[in-house]
Amino acid sequence: MRDVALRREPVPPDGTMGGPRAGGRFGEYGGRYAPESLVEACREVDEAFREAWADPGFRDALAGLLAAHAGRPTPLTPAERLSEALGVRLYLKREDLAHTGSHKINNVLGQALLATRMGRRRLIAETGAGQHGVATATAAALLGLEATVFMGERDIERQELNVFRMRMLGAEVIPVTAGSRTLKDATSEAMRHWVGATGDSHYCIGSVIGPDPYPWMVREFQRVIGDEARGQCAAELRTGVPDHVVACVGGGSNAAGTFAGFADTPARLVGVEAEGGAGAARGRLGVLHGCRSLFLQDGDGQITEAHSIAPGLDYPGVGPEHAHLRDLGRARYVTVTDDEAISAAVRLARTEGIVPALESAHALAWVIRAADEGDLPAGSAVLMTLSGRGDKDVSTLKELL
Amino acid sequence: MTNPTMTAGAVERHLRARRDAGRGLLMPYVTGGITPGWTDYLRAFADAGADAIEVGLPFSDPTLDGVTIQQAGQTALVRGASTRRILADLSGMADLGVPLVASTYYNLVQHDGPEAFCAALRRAGVGGLIVPDLPVHEADELTDVAAAAGIEPALLASPATPQPRLAEIVFRSRGFVYAVSLMGTTGERAALAVSAAQLTERIRRVTDRPVLLGFGISTPDQAREARRHADGVVVGAAVMRRVLDGAGPDDLRAFLATLRKALDQECDRPR
């Protein structure tokens, strides 16, 4: 797969996206800041994951599910008309073509398979827009598990169709009425629920957040994006690796999976956050939902609400490994506005015939801006992960366009 | 075993003295800043015979709390409560004669830095600290600076805690050991969980440090039953539900007096 000789340059220590250090640390971030009642459950997930990940039988079973059920590998699409207009060579890693419409299925199939291996009979999940909830409901149905999905009341109103999809797939959707009634509150409620259900249930976290081992485990389940793209780029590009690797970042799972395939190459890694949810670009050191990372907070240390037109970026923090990559300078994190993302979505639709998720449109908006402003030199090879398809956002866009 | 009275801080010495005198310990909880005159609740608690008082510093995302404490925290935050203001209110109070124990989530400690946070607690007359999302394996960065500031961080033990880890929690806990009675969040329950007796029994085997049982203890009967296993009880949601329903300090004094009486009666029985 890696038949093209790579230009290898020294990368900062610890920034190569291998396993975390002892204690689930990525530099000073990460850890297992879980209530005592969940510590043993986290340890069990950690132990089970380490065993499973080292077991070729588990790897084969997962690869089989990803191929037969989720449509992997996903293609690498050269965005030809848009590339010509921008003066760069843009390649899209098409996670929008994965089953259920986004990269979320990669992680969920991995965790669902792990849950069955652990003898659990139910998955618990949080969801914002409903993408992770739909993916969880799908994996549960496929493997004969039950699924309980926590979703903020406000998101339930905004994402009626995904709620219906989850219920059709047999999942129980529980409205969360606490706090801002969005993703962060759904995550808190899922954790509370898990405390009382550790015996028979696995908490299937949807991003590279949460207590150790979740940030590491979810990145490993998502690294299939980066590994596939690395092989596809090797076949496509004379240099073997792209100059830039770009992905949107909410909690940061599609970016972590993408970056993992390129962390040991000279490619520049760029995470694109929503202006109103920029945990990596503007967050402060804090502890939430089980890990130490960067979170948006007010002057008193209260977590503030994120605001983005893309529900998947509506999280006030970022995964601990991203915080670490930022500190190392191995990845940089930039922000784009709602308006830039909307324009980018329309532009991709009209030049390439692809309606992207608004989350993914953020990554594209940065590529467009950077090409316009010369941040991306003419002729640069840019790999961008198109994390999901835009069907879920059509009603939002309809009101704005 | 080291002589506990040599290493014990003020909170632990106070609780040990009362426990050793045969008293069942009562630690009621109030969310700081819940009402304009919220410190009046503390006086009422002390009058009703509290042995320590837990003061919650509200956090936006209380992941281990049930609905009642969540609502109380939210109410206080909407009123403009903050760690700084709550501690300022406490600083203005006369000594109640019982130790104050702050409780909050680790983000608020991290926000100020453990050193500054503990120093601020100390200046406000707080002696103990409970941080439910700071388990023992992450507690190093807090415990050393807390000790230097004269703050006793009490660690939580859970029914899911395996034995070697339980011994470490008990050994490193200061003030008392907080035994979480059940696998769940804070909040009132119809009955004391079966896991409560088993956990306290396991803790007792490794320490004579005071053990307070919390989570779900809401009635005099439950307090009486808890007292058969532990040195005392923490009562939070049952207090805060009444506060949220509009109960004033006098109402809470009366409620806590029923718990006090139940604990005292249980002490009179041969154990």
UniProtKB/TrEMBL annotation, chain B:
Q: Has the keyword Amino-acid biosynthesis been applied to this entry?
A: yes
Organism of provenance: Nonomuraea longispora
Q: In which pathway does it act?
A: Amino-acid biosynthesis; L-tryptophan biosynthesis; L-tryptophan from chorismate: step 5/5
**Pfam families, from UniProt?**
Trp_syntA
The record's comment on protein family reads:
Belongs to the TrpA family.
Q: What is this protein called?
A: Tryptophan synthase alpha chain
Q: Which NCBIfam families match?
A: trpA
UniProt key word Ion transport:
no
GO cellular component terms listed in the entry, alphabetical order: cytosol
List UniProt keywords, sorted A-Z. Answer: Amino-acid biosynthesis, Aromatic amino acid biosynthesis, Lyase, Tryptophan biosynthesis
Task: List the gene name.
Answer: trpA
Q: What is its EC number?
A: 4.2.1.20
Outline what the protein does: The alpha subunit is responsible for the aldol cleavage of indoleglycerol phosphate to indole and glyceraldehyde 3-phosphate.
Q: Which residues form the active site?
A: E54, D65
Any one Gene Ontology MF annotation carried by this entry is: tryptophan synthase activity
Which reactions fall under this protein's catalytic activity? Answer: (1S,2R)-1-C-(indol-3-yl)glycerol 3-phosphate + L-serine = D-glyceraldehyde 3-phosphate + L-tryptophan + H2O
- Assembly and oligomerization: Tetramer of two alpha and two beta chains.
